[in-house]
Structures are given as C-alpha cells and as structure tokens.
Design goal:
The longest helix is centred in the N-terminal third of the chain and has 17 residues, at 114-130. It contains 20 helices and 15 strands. Strand 2 and strand 3 (59-65) form a beta hairpin. With 509 residues, the chain is α/β, with parallel strands linked by helices. Strands 1, 2, 3, 4, 5, 13, 14 and 15 form an eight-stranded mixed sheet that branches.
C-alpha cells in the first residue's frame, strides 16, 4: 500500500475498533485564579504586567492589574497559581494535523500489535498538549473519526475539515477502486465526468459537498491540487471553475477553504481560484531546474499573489524532514522521543517491520540497497537540500513582506515516525526561525492568526475576557524566543490545569 493510502483510509473509514478510551472526566475547578502574572497576548502591543486572571467554568471571567477587595473576597473559593516571574499566553493552535493514524504504523500493523497501538493512541493527544497545543484542526476527517479521537480521556480541543478531493485525483488515487468511492463522502465529480456505479453525481457537486460538510460539523473545506509524486504521476487536478464554485459555496456557508498545494503551478492555481489558505509551503518549483534556490521572477509572482490576496500560508517545512529523517541513524535515539511516544512504539520502529516506510522510500534509490546506513545518511539527505532551501527562501520572502502566516505542521505528513506528535510542532518552530520568521510572527501565527483564519477567534486565540481558558504558563516571553515553549510550566485546557510531567509518555498513571 502506498504512503498516502493509510491516511485517506483511516480518515474516512467507519469505526474500526482500535481506538479505545473514555470520555474526559470533568476535573476542571469552578474557579481558578492566576496572580502576579505577565500576560502576553497577540492583540496587545505590549505585555500586561502584574496581572490577575480569573477563570470561571472554563472561561476567562476577569483580567485586572494588582489586587482588589472583590478579588480577596473570592480567594477562599478559588484555586490560585502564583504567576510571579511567569508569562501567560494563549494555548497554541496547530491548524494542520491528521489524527486518524499512528505515525509510522499502518492499519494492518495496528491490528497485529494492539497493545502497542493502544498505548500510542492514548499518548498522542497528551503529546500535543505537552508541547502546548491546546487546539488542533484535522484537515481531512469525518464526524466518525472525530468521535473516535475525542473518546480518549484527555484531548486538545479538536475540529475538522472535510476533504473535497477530485474523483480519482489526489489523495483518492492511493486507495484501490472501487473502495475509494465508498470512503470519500465529500468527493467532487466535475460536469462531464461519468460517476462510478451507484454514486449520484448530484451529491458530489461543490454545493452539495459543502452542504454535507456543514451538516456534519466541519469548520472548513480542504481541497487538493496535486499532479502526483512517487509511483503516481499525471493525476487529474480540478478545473478553475470547480474550485471557484467550491469557494463560493463554502463562503456562503461560513467555511474557509484550504488547498493542498506545494508546487508552483498549484500555488498559482490557489491564487487564481481565491482560496483562503494554502496548506503547504512552496518547495516544488516546476520548470526551475536545480540547483536554483533563490527566488526567481516566476516564484516571486506567485508569492506576490499570495500577499495581494492576503491568503493564509502554512510553511509546513517539517514535512520534508519527516521523510529525510527516516534515513537518519540517530533519529530514534533522540531522547525527546521518549517524552512523546511510548517506549514500546519506539522499540517497534527499530524492528524490520517498523522500518517498512523507510524501506518503501529506499526503493526509489536502487544504489542504496545493501549499503551501510551511516554512509548513506549524508548523500540521501542531500536529495532534499534543494526543496528545503526553496521552501525556506519562499517562507522568508513572505515573512519579510508581511504575509498572513499560519502555523501548521501536517503531523504526520505521511506514514513516517519522523513527524512525532507535539514534538513535530516544536521542530517546525526551529525550521521557521531558520527561515527568518521572527518569534513574534510564530506566536501570532500559532494563536490569533490561526483562530481568525478558521473562524475560531470568538473562543480562542487571545487572553481575553469571555474566551475559553486554553492557556500556557511559560518562563519566557514567546514573542522574544521560541525557546519559551521548551519550558512550559503549566498547560491549562478549558480551565483544567495540567502538569507537563503528567502529560509525558512513559509515566506511571
């Protein structure tokens, strides 16, 4: 089975019985007080120092400076945190995840190793929280898949987009016929295209698809422009008129439209069709031969179109490392993995079975067969050097020209264990800094900009009265350094205070 088939199937198939767990217990207190804290919130031009924040029933009820008689009268009934020397910020939003799969493990392997799979699925939501992600958006999912995810004891707030794939295009192409038509409820069928047997084409127009997504509870629409890669080339892509109609229908329903687009022709298409968000950085510069990595006039025209259209842009630089690091001989020894993945899963990755996706990718490099992995590490990593430099330069150009950057990781970008949950977001931040994105821009992208782009800013994205109490307590100001997220003091999810050490993997519960 090819790399993308696992994601598409797991995101769209009915419940398959591997996800276990229980509804989250109501453990948040009626009232929480955070005193003497410095508030750093994206709508504020400067931090608010020596502040007091009161949370009631999971929402921010009051924000004030210093102490007061009314607050003293309430203190005896409240849980209180001394925030002196700490920074209170909104929880992070990862606006591009895929939650239907365990990174690096396919469905058949889950069935063969139920204990490993169970431990992994119970830990994955905690690993996102451990790294400060209190809100996630799964870009290709269904109500059934969301229900399975939310059945775990503790999960970040999670929303989903419906995946409006063109019939027989990406990523449907990875699933064999005729099963692909049964697992794609939001499939698009263009006029003049014969529908598969048993499929009513009137239910797969842009308007019909959007109506169904909205009724299913989706908050956004995800579509695709991908001509193919690996073993699949020359895939059909949607017409301009189709996606423009999809955008009109989605906007009428109050839903933003995202598009999978990582190539120059795909992002030019995105600009032309008026989508709201491009769900990848630009690393595939078609018609620009290597080793060119500096911004060309053709690429500049596309990026300027993104700027002129105020289109949200997710760099997702870590996607490329998700494949490259499969060939690293030291990746699985990284001690940070033990914080986000069960030890049993890490050990399974080391087995021949756990190396299946590494072996699949290695088939593209015949000269690598039988060679020493350490000797091959550098030359195989070099293969990704050009696309990595290209996406870094494109990201830098947009960042320095005031683009609407949005934080998303595409975790996991493929069936790769090198996109570990939560940690992948931390790694993405390092890639963004290397691409000249400032800590303040990353903070904005992962909080208010994401919330606004997905129409969630009425509830989250800032530290404001009335907003949901999805918050982080940090030792440093994240607008000055992303290293602030490497030392989270407390995670607050809907008013429930979570200790980082209790979220880490391999802890006795």
């Amino acid at each position: 089975m090819d790399s993308k088939s696992v994601r598409w199937l797991l995101a769209t198939l009915p419940a398959y019985g591997l996800l276990l767990g229980h509804p989250a217990a109501a453990q948040s207190v009626d009232e929480l007080r955070i005193e003497h804290v410095t508030i750093v919130s994206p709508e504020r031009s400067t931090p608010l120092r020596d502040a007091e924040v009161v949370v009631r029933k999971g929402r921010i009820a009051a924000i004030s400076r210093g102490r007061g008689g009314q607050r003293s009268a309430l203190r005896s009934t409240a849980n209180t945190i001394d925030g002196k020397g700490l920074y209170l910020t909104p929880g992070l939003i990862d606006s591009h995840v895929h939650l239907g799969e365990i990174p690096g493990m396919n469905g058949a392997q889950e069935a063969q190793h139920p204990d490993i799979a169970r431990a992994a699925r119970e830990q994955i939501p905690r690993s996102f929280l451990l790294h400060g992600f209190t809100t996630l958006v799964d870009l290709v999912s269904t109500p059934e898949a969301m229900a399975r995810w939310k059945a775990h004891e503790l999960v970040p707030d999670t929303y989903f987009c419906g995946g409006a794939a063109l019939m027989d295009g990406y990523p449907m192409n990875w699933t064999p016929k005729p099963a692909r038509y049964q697992v794609a409820p939001y499939m698009l069928i263009e006029p003049g295209t014969a529908a598969p047997a048993g499929i009513d084409p009137t239910m797969h127009t842009p308007a019909a698809v959007v109506t169904r997504m909205k009724a299913d509870g989706a908050i956004c629409v995800k579509t695709f422009f991908e001509r193919g890669f690996g073993s699949a080339h020359n895939l059909p892509v949607p017409q301009v008129a189709t996606i423009r109609e999809l955008v009109r229908a989605a906007h009428a329903a109050g839903l933003p439209v995202l598009i999978h687009a990582n190539s120059s022709d795909a992002q030019a298409f995105a600009v032309e069709t008026g989508v709201d968000i491009i769900a990848h950085g630009l690393w595939n510069w078609r018609d620009t031969p290597p080793p060119t990595t500096e911004i060309t006039p053709a690429v500049k025209k596309i990026l300027d179109g993104v700027l002129a259209g105020n289109i949200g842009w997710q760099p997702t630089i870590q996607v490329l490392y998700g494949e490259r690091d499969l060939f690293s001989t030291s990746f699985l020894a990284d001690p940070r993995l033990t914080q986000v993945l069960p030890a049993s899963l890490i050990e399974w990755y080391r087995t021949p079975e756990g190396q299946w996706f590494h072996d699949t990718l290695a088939e593209a490099y015949p000269k690598a067969k039988g060679q020493d992995p350490k000797a091959l590490e550098a030359p195989l990593s070099e293969i990704d050097a050009v696309p990595l430099e290209r996406v870094e330069h494109a990201t830098s150009y947009l960042a320095t020209h005031g683009a609407r950057l949005l934080f998303g990781t595409d975790t996991p970008s493929a069936p790769t264990y090198a996109n570990p949950p939560g940690l992948n977001g931390w790694l993405e931040m390092q890639r963004l800094v290397a691409a000249n994105v400032t800590p303040a821009q990353i903070f904005q992208a992962a909080t208010l900009s994401n919330a606004r782009a997905l129409h969630l800013d009425g509830d989250i994205g800032t530290v404001s009265v009335g907003k949901k109490a999805n918050l982080l307590l940090l030792r440093a100001d994240p607008t000055q350094t992303v290293q602030a997220y490497g030392d989270i003091v407390k995670v607050i999810l809907g008013g429930r205070v979570l200790e980082p050490q209790g979220l880490a993997a391999n802890q006795a519960r």
